[in-house]
Amino acid sequence: MMHYIIFMNEIIFEKWQVQLRKGFLELCVLKALQNKGKGYGLEILLLLKDIGLEVNEGTLYPLLNRMQKNGWLESTWDTQTESGHPRRFYQLSDVGKKLLPEMLNAYQNNNNSLEQLEKLS
Questions:
Q1: Contact at 8 Å (CB) between 100 and 30?
Q2: pTM
Q3: Do the Cβ atoms of 38 and 91 come closer than 8 Å?
């Protein structure tokens, strides 16, 4: 029975971690694109890796598509690239520009609350 409880807790933790990471990645992608103005998938992937946030293509591209579908991002194709391969460049939409400060504020408020709890212990 104890092994089952440990197993179930691991599954619950993994699900929680996936949800936390999903929201955090959305926030990081919006912030990265705000800083850069626009960027293509591999460029965003490498930028996230440079700041210590390991993301694979199988996670990033569906995330970018979902964010565009939600209206947070806009994209354009550039077929005149140095490598000759077309690239889809993403940038914040008007909705994304309005959403990002709200998301940053919510993140900061949550982080502040956690820090306050830490001080109580």
A1: yes
A2: 0.85
A3: yes
CA-nearest of 88, 119, 107 to 31 is 107
pLDDT tens digits for range 60-103: 999 999 999 999 999 999 887 677 788 999 999 999 999 999 99
Cβ pair 115, 102 in contact under 8 A: no
- Rounding to the nearest 10 degrees, give the CA dihedral for residues 111, 113, 116, 121: -100
CB atoms closer than 10 angstroms to residue 85: 9
Q: Considering the domain 2-120, what is its CATH architecture? A: Orthogonal Bundle (1.10)
Please tell me the distance from the alpha carbon of residue 74 to that of residue 117, in angstroms, as a whole number: 39
Report the side by side order of strands in the sheet with 73-78: 39-40, 87-92, 73-78
Tokens of 102: 């709200």
Predicted confidence (pLDDT) per residue in 13-40, tens digit: 888 888 999 999 999 999 999 999 999 9
Q: How far is CA 80 from CA 24, 71, 77, 84, in A?
A: 32, 26, 9, 6
